[in-house]
Structure formats: structure tokens, C-alpha cells
Fold:
Amino acid sequence: MNESTQQIFDKDARDYLPVFNRYKIVVDHGEGVYTYDNEGNRYIDFLAGIAVNVLGHNYRPLVTAIAEQAAKVIHISNLYYTKPQADAASKLVKLSGLGRAFFCNSGAEANEGAIKIARKFAHNIDKDKSQIITAWNSFHGRTLATLTATGQPHYQHGYEPLPGGFDYVHYNDIDELEKTMSDKTCAVMLETIQGEGGVYPPKGDYLKQVRELCNKYNALLILDEIQAGIGRSGKFFAYDKYNIKPDIVTLAKGLAGGVPIGAFITTEEVAAAFKPGDHGTTFGGNPLACAAANVVLDTVPDEKFLNNVIEVGKYFKETLYNLKSKYPELIVDVRGEGLILGAELSDQNKLTGVEIVNECMKRGAIINCTVGKVLRFIPPLIITKDHVDEVISILDAVMNTSK
Ligand SMILES: *Cc1c(COP(=O)(O)O)cnc(C)c1O
Structure:
């Protein structure tokens, strides 16, 4: 370990508020699918900044667009029009088939805005129409409203009193949802594919039935595609895989390839619930972030680009199934769509999920483990089958020591 690495660890230990368990590397730079630490070690990166770096690192058109925009104007506030923002909004409206887009800076803020506009819209119908139903095991963010929406109590403990009006149902259980809904339901909010909770796609025509129940009770369907959207499922919007349309969809993570941004997109009808002054943001959708988003929005929806996600994703899933056949006592399930994949580990493993992640890292691969037992793969969307083979061979070597 060189001097500066230890100095950085020491500074962080002294001065950074420690809410993260960090891996002991200092990242220096990235190139494509690879991340390099400051000691020159290379890692194949199948976490991609938590589903953010959809175009990989140092993607030239993205770097150029950011540099050119920075030289023109980085920020000007939302009191003025900018072309990058107008362009990005138009692209999202066209891709989504919805009516209007709003930009913010993160996923939590996108969901916060979605919850706010849903409440405003429903209050105009009936001021008691305020119930928001979300799923156990979901993840929607860390603000007070979004961590309340997040159906994982451990994220909520200690922050009470939480905002009211939230109820929870089991994802993929349509009967439970029906029993929970009424005319007082303002919105049902779900991840199109649950990510952080362990990679759970919707089963059968669950989402279609959710859509029908929302229609029946005049409730809005909010789909959180912060992780599963932006092409990761093989469609630009994951809901297009399931042939439904939400009333509101939220995006963030990959939307600007790594520059902080969030967005919610909704119908004209719902959008009309917000009047000037009802919502706002200083940074949201500034020209720098939108210039970056425009590169993503010009690249990812392309049929050839998405076909790569589908093809490599299918290959990746098959190789995970092969790994499961080879280590049936270690891997109990393989799930996911496109390039959001999970391999669930058995409870009896000699190595825990976290230990497997650490062992992979020692061998030069960055992967992730969520909820303590699901290896989660959310790589850049530009990976090839060779990259998959590289990660799988490392995983194979690690699992071999764990038998
Ligand atoms: C990451 C994530 C969020 C929160 O996004 P932040 O940018 O961290 O606020 C919300 N919903 C889902 C599905 C996510 O994966």
C-alpha cells in the first residue's frame, strides 16, 4: 500500500461521516468496463457505480458532451430555459409515451416528487384519498417520505414519526393488493423489477393486474425504474416488457451516465395537478446534467444497443444457471431480466455473500451482494460475452474454494 492510499483512508476515517461500509480501495479512474485503483490494480466492474455507469467509464461522447457544456454554461437555475433541458424532456416524453417530464438530482427526489404530485392529484378528487401502497422488500430512497415508502423496516427505525398514509403489500401478491385498496387509495408505487431487495421481477401478468386495480379504484400507478429503467431490462422502460403504462415513472441512476440527475415523467392529466410554485428545485435538470442525459438518451434506446443488453443478458443468465448446476449447494436461485440479474445463495454457505464479494475483488472483479444473500449483477450496459466469461471464471474460482 503506498503512502497516499493510507493517508486517504486516515483522512476519511477522521473526517467523513461513516454511513457506508467501504471496500479498502481508492478508485483512481475507469476505462470502459474496468475500474482502476490508485495502486494500478484493475477490476472488471459489474456494479457500475450501482447501476449508474450504463455507458461504462470514460465513454468519449459523454465526456465530450460534458466538457463542451461545462465550457458554455454549467448551471443557470430553472428560472430560465436551456436547450439541453428542453431536449432531454422531449426525449423522455417521446420514449415513455407519457406527457411531461420533471428533473431533479437523485432517485429519492424523483420518488419524492412522484409522491407529492400523486397526493396533489388525488386531493383534488377527495382530500381523504391519500393512501399510498408500496411493496415489502422495496427500495425507494432515503428521504423521510421515500424511506417510509421503502418496505424494509430497518431503514425506518429511529426516524419516527414517519409521514402517514403508507401501507405495504407483498410484491407479486395481487389478492393482498386488492384487499388493501379502496377508493381512498391515492397511488400504488412499485419497482417494475425489485432491485435492492434482492432482484425480484414481476411474475406472470402481475403488473397488468395491478394496472387494472389502479384503474378500478382511480388510483395512480407509480413505477420506480430508477434501477431497472434506462435499458437495463432490455427495453428502455422496463414496463414496456410487461405491456403496461404507469401514470408516473421515476428515473435516476443511469439517466446521465454518472452525472447526478433524477426525473419523473407523468401524464398531461396528472401533471396538471402541479401549478407554478407547487414544486421546485435549484439544481434539478441543469444544463450540465441534461447534456449528459442527452447522450444517454441518444444512445441507450437504439435497437442495436438494447439488443446487446438482451443478448448478453441472456448469455449471462445461462452462465449463472450453469454455475448453479455446478454448485447446487451454494446457489439456490437465479433471477432477473436483461442486465439486472441476481444469484441467491444458500444459507448454509461456507462463505457469506459479503465474503464472496470480497474474494472476487481480490481476484479483480467488482460485484455486489444485496440483502446479505443475493449476488447482484448490474454492470454497464456495454459489456460483451467475454466480460461475462471473465467475471464468471472469477466467481467460479471463488465458489470452488467455498465447497
Ligand atoms: C437507488 C434507488 C433509489 C434511490 O436513488 P438515490 O439516487 O440513491 O436517491 C430509489 N429507487 C430505486 C429502485 C433505487 O434503486
